[in-house]
Design brief:
6 helices, about 120 residues, single chain
Amino acid sequence: MNVEKQIQYWKQAALSDLDTAEVLISNKKLREGLFFCHLSIEKALKAHYVKTNRAAAPRTHNLFFFISKCGIDADQLSEDLLGKLMKYQLEGRYPETIPLVISQTEADVLFRQTQDRLRWLIEQL
């Protein structure tokens, strides 16, 4: 496995998903946009997993799992933000869960926080 190639793959995918999140949220597709916010952080954490463990990233969507395996301080990422994003990834994958209601303002705040934390994660690679 080419570690650098994997890191670049996950990094680029994370940035692309953040762009998608921005488009969705700006078009009032809030839950879908927040699902992509989760994906962007997940993929950046997968890049960190590959870098730290020199192995392919596991097929899980749990942000806290990746933090624990990469030696990243959850406080640096905002545990509160991660917890909120985890709810949207569950809703996006398992529609039988109760839909989360969120305002445009709340979604915009979560997007900006995701953007900030993604920038920080990528700087650490």
